[in-house]
Amino acid sequence: MKRVVITGMGAITPLGLNVEEFWSGLKEGRHGFGEITKFDSSEYKAHMAGEVKGFVGKDYMDPKAARRMELFCQYAVAAAKEAIEDSGFHMEEEDPYRVGCSIGSGIGSLQTVEKEHSKLLEKGPNRVNPLMVPMMISNMAAGNVSIQFGLKGKSINVVTACATGTHCIGEAYRTIQFGDADIMVAGGTESCITPVGVSGFAALTALSTSTDPDRCSIPFDKERDGFVMGEGAGVVVLEELEHAKKRGAKILGEIVGYGATSDAYHITSPAEDGEGAAKAMENAVKEAGIALEEVTYINAHGTSTHHNDLFETRAIKKLFGDHAYKMKVNSTKSMIGHLLGAAGAVEVIACVKQMENNYVHQTAGYQVADEECDLDYVTGQGVEMEIPYALTNSLGFGGHNASLLIKKFAE
User: Fold this and answer.
1) Whole-prediction pTM
2) Annotated catalytic, 162?
3) Residue 361 annotated to the active site
4) Strand 34-35 and strand 48-50: pairing?
């Protein structure tokens, strides 16, 4: 098995338009929540969102190319551009068929669906945009990134709802492990703060109805009442270790374990005993060949819904036993909301930055303890500590569980 390292990262988030802005926000405990501005939400049950601010697609790509992409693709291209530049590899020096792309979106473009459906009803079928399908479908994030940067290797789009970004990085890791690529540009992207997106999740009672930006996304807090929809993209460059060393790449971290399971239980609720999530974490740790006690930090899925936070807590305790109470567990979603298909990828970036800085960010907004969620969720302020390993979880509708174990790089 080949070793796989992270050599570049890029992010578009509600806290900023690059990795450093995102990290600064996390470190300071700032959130990116506010009233929805993308449409009038006054009649809706949910009013808060984590919107990306100040993004202009043509700043990252040719204006004509930007016009042919919906926001989820533009976010992916922008994050990929930053990640590739951060990694420092040059396509003209690579075999393009050994450089692949694994970028997913949980939903694709609801904007296109809404706009073209209205056109269909009002003006008839002959007025629908000829580019409707290629602007709408979720694989176009990977397609557009591949086209923009000339990546001719494996190009895939794993769609597993809220576990999409983590699965995409996990499958890219496997691709390099098994020798099918030298480099994979991997991650997730999403932009679904639209009338259909918000009303659909609200109808499921999945979204917070809070109108207080400081208390709307409060993972593990007893008063949590649902997640806040966010948007953005997270992209990492994964590389085979010897390939990275040969070109003198800066190595940010190493992926050493990947676990993926299914609850096979319910379309929206995780398994109540947390068994599926526990098994995904166990498989990731087992692949790394380390003891459970060596894992001291978990970046939780931590959505701020009643079921997720409770059942994920149970999963952590089920696997780690008494050691669970000695670990630091936090939720990045407390500051950026739930980025759906992009969430896991952005959280991988959060893990790497925390390892790099020996600092675990706080779970922001937490105030009221829940007796059933009784782990150390890093409340009040962040904690300075060495992080040799970071375990990150993503749990998606349909019962999809994905865990990645990241190690601080050492020869």
Assistant:
1) 0.98
2) yes
3) no
4) antiparallel
